[in-house]
Amino acid sequence: MRKKNKKVLVALSGGVDSAVAAALLLQKGYEVVGAFMIQYENSSNVRSQSLERESCWRNDYREALRVAAHLRITLFQFDFTKDYKKHVLDYLYREYRANRTPNPDVLCNTFIKFGVWLEKAKDLDFDYLATGHYARNMRTSKMYESKKSENYFSTSNFQNASQFVCYHLMMAKDKIKDQTYFLHQLNQEQLSRVLFPIGDYTKPQVRRLAKRFGLPNATREESMGICFVGEVPMKDFLKNQIKTKVGDIVLSSGEIIGKHEGLELYTIGQRHIGVQGSRPLYVVDKYLKTNELVVGFEADPLLYKKEITIDDVRWVSGQEPKFPLTSEVRLRHRQALQKCRIMNNESGIMVEFGKPQRAVTPGQFAVLYKNGECLGGGVIQ
Question: Which of these, 287, 300, 311, 313, lies nearest to 356 by C-alpha position?
Answer without folding.
Answer: 300
